[in-house]
Structures are given as C-alpha cells and as structure tokens.
Write a structure and sequence with these properties.
Elements lengths: L25 E6 L5 E2 L14 E6 L2 E9 L15 E7 L4 E7 L9 E8 L5 E10 L5 E3 L6
Parallel strand pairs: 6-8
Antiparallel strand pairs: 1-2, 1-3, 4-5, 4-7, 5-6, 7-8, 8-9
Length: 148
C-alpha cells in the first residue's frame, strides 16, 4: 500500500536530520515494527498500524504518477521562470508523495525524476523534483528545463 502525502519543508528540517546523512538526502519514515517505508509526514504505518516510526533516507528518485499545473497565485517554493506544477511522485523506494515538479514535464510518464532542494524564506529546505536523463554512470542526471 502506498502512502500519499504532501512533502513539507519541515520534513527536511535540520532538527530531524541525523548528522550522519548527506545534506541532499530525502528523508522518509520507516516503521520500526515492519520496516515499511512511508511518506515523510505519516503518523501511522499503513501496513501494520504501528506508530513507532523512525527516519530513513531514500534514493530521492522516482517517477511522476500524475501532475497538474498549480492554481494561479500559488506561492512557489522555488524561483524559476516555469509555472509551478503539483505532482504525485512514486518514489523508487515505495511511497508516493505530493510535491512540486521543477522545469518541463516529460511527454512520457515513465521518465525518472530526482529530488533537489530549494531554500524557503524561513531558511528550511523544500524538496522539489526535476526530470532526469540516464547518465553513463547509470545514475539519473538532471535534465535542464526545456530539454524534457
């Protein structure tokens, strides 16, 4: 079962981040009872209904399940010339999250996306996703806006 949830700037807060993780790691919740990975703001495990949830880093990659242009006047968590796009991203690690897409939306929905972080006015980091291209290393590389 997937947990759909909006990713908040608070999910990447330095107060929650274990010191051993890289600063660009997207953090998920992991149920300590059954090890299910869950969206960042989840309070109860969707598999076993456990409430003892720890923090776990994820790959930060996934694919767009659905997207829609944000309503006019929406405050963007980032500053780009492209209009903001709301999306549901299914992470390669399992859960689905509500987020923003930065740059152009791919014509094919199977194109991978990777998390990046943008600063907020309050000094926090807001996770957004951008379309990736396969690199020679086998790891997705970000595609510049307009190239998707």
């Amino acid at each position: 079962m997937h947990q759909d949830q909006h990713v908040s700037p608070h999910t990447a807060s330095d107060t929650m981040r274990p010191r051993t993780l890289p600063p660009d790691a997207l953090l998920l919740k992991r149920c300590t009872n059954c090890a299910t990975l869950l969206a960042p703001l989840t309070a109860t495990c969707t598999s076993c209904l456990g409430t003892d949830l720890g923090i776990a880093p994820c790959s930060g990659t996934g694919s767009i399940v659905s997207w829609k242009p944000a309503p006019a006047g929406t405050d963007e968590p980032h500053t780009t010339a492209a209009p903001p796009v709301n999306a549901i991203v299914e992470l390669d690690d399992g859960p689905r999250i509500y987020t923003w897409i930065e740059g152009d939306i791919p014509l094919r929905p199977d194109r991978p996306v990777r998390v990046t972080f943008r600063p907020t006015e309050r000094g926090e980091r807001f996770p957004v996703f951008a379309v990736c291209a396969a690199a020679a290393t086998g790891r997705p590389a970000l595609v510049p806006a307009g190239a998707a």
